[in-house]
Amino acid sequence: MAYRKYKLALVIRVIILFFALTALAFAISILDFQKNLPLNIVILIPILFILFYSFRNLYRFVFRRFSEMDDFFESVKYRDFSRWFNEKSGAEDLRELHKGFNEVNKTIHEINKEKEAQHLYLKKILELINTGIIAYNIDSGEVLWINDSFKKNLNIPSLKNIQFVKNRKPDLFDSVFVKNHTSENSITVDIENEKTKLLIASSIFQIKEHSYKLIVIQNIDSTLTQNETEAWKKLLSVMTHEIMNSIAPISSLAETLQSKVQQSIEHPENHQIDMNDLDTGIESIKKRSEGLLKFAKTYRSLNKITKLNLSKILVVELFENIKTLMLPSLESKGIALHFEIENFNLEIEIDSYLIEQVLINLILNSVEACKGIESPKIILSTQKSIDGQPIIRIKDNGKGIPNEIIDDVFIPFFSTKKSGGGIGLSLCKQIMHLHKGRIQVKSIEEKGTIVSLIFHKLKKEESY
User: Fold this and answer.
1) Would you say 376 and 382 are in contact if contact means Cβ atoms under 8 Å apart?
2) What structural domains does the chain harbor?
3) pLDDT tens sequence across 55-95
4) What whole-number distance in Å separates Cα of residue 381 and Cα of residue 80?
5) How far apart are CA 431 and CA 392, in angstroms?
6) Partners of 334 in the beta sheet?
7) pTM of the predicted structure, to 2 decimals
8) How far is CA 339 from CA 169, 381, 382, in A?
9) Distance of CA 404 to the CA centre of its chain
10) What is the pLDDT of residue 359?
């Protein structure tokens, strides 16, 4: 709309100028200046005045708009986007032109603010990371940007120019700044009389007519030390967890046997000790202790294909060992332990020490889930799948596992307990994987959890 009005105003002015020129030409052709000069001058003056006014008006009309655009482009040239053009007064087409200029200034101003915010955000991120970064002008050595990690890794102060490093530490300067590392390289540098390994990479980039070099470094020694420390912490956590899980039932059973022996010594006539029970209890303590020692030796290779000490065992015998080992501890907590055996002749080929460790872990998880539950109970059952695979199930009536985390329970070091290490179920899964079996969990909140251990099917010629 503004352009149309501008075009209309321009056409009107051109038409007026055209008619003024035509009138002047006509007047000159018909007037006789020799016969009546004063009258002719009187007639020509208004025409000349109109012609002059029309030309002046057209010139000012066009020149002013070009002048406004020239001012705007001048401000763009010098990046002065703070100027505000008047939108309230003047010709309508000029007001529209000013409005467009202001919109452009406003947009560029907002873009600059966004770029500044992004720059600050990126700068903050680069300051927080452990990787050292520096960018500098190749010709002058002037530092464009450097983060604290770079200064810390090389033990240098704030830099304005890399010549400082060249003057103070020429060997370091040659290794880091002079040599090109187009791909990641490992270098050893001398920092404060100590050999330090660095992972380094560099790249050259262009900004306008200047060339810059970007160098990225990472201290390998400190990273490896930190990773090793974390790995040892996690390993110790796992070992402590499993040892405590085994020691707890051993301690409880030993305490029960000691109590019976003490009562038999003090009151032999009323508390005669059953030697078979005593022998069975001691045998359970012995076997679990041997299993604990074997586990300590085996754990470090659980993440590899390990040759297990496999043997065929009746599930009822496995349950009997677990009953002897766990029953005293569960009874002291008021938790009932039941066994449901569908087939007393069902056998599985397992490393009994490791599978006992799995069952102990799962039972202790059930004990934790049954805290605060009325009439808590844990049921160990066995059956065969449709395909004939032996299955051992551990079922409790505890609090259950929320749906949103049930898929995460086998992730190493994932735990919902404040004191938990998050390695019990992940370790169970590893042990079952070594047995070429699998473990499944089904749970309903406030109703309980069922954990199924599914073993591979024995061939006919392997069975008794």
Assistant:
1) no
2) 2-108 (no CATH), 130-225 (3.30.450.20), 227-462 (3.30.565.10)
3) 777 767 676 667 777 777 777 777 777 777 777 777 766 77
4) 81
5) 14
6) none
7) 0.41
8) 75, 6, 9
9) 20
10) 93
**Dist CA 347 CA 458 (whole Å):** 8
444 to 63, 361, 398, 408, 430: CA distances (angstroms): 83, 20, 9, 15, 25
CA angle 7, 8, 9 (to 5 degrees): 90
- Positive or negative torsion for Cα 129, 131, 135, 140: positive
Query: How far apart are the C-alpha atoms of 458 and 455, rounded to whole Å?
Result: 9
Q: Assign 220 to helix, strand or coil.
A: helix
Whether residue 21 contacts residue 51, with contact meaning beta carbons closer than 8 Å, is answered with yes
Q: What is the dihedral of CA 242, 248, 253, 257, to 10 degrees?
A: 130
Contact assessment for residue 426 and residue 411, using Cβ atoms and an 8 Å cutoff: yes
Q: How far is CA 57 from CA 21, 49, 90, 97, in A?
A: 15, 12, 15, 20
Closest Cα to residue 276, out of 267, 284, 266? 284
Helix/strand/coil for 336? strand
Assigned token pair, 291:
């299993």
Residue 88: its H or E element: none
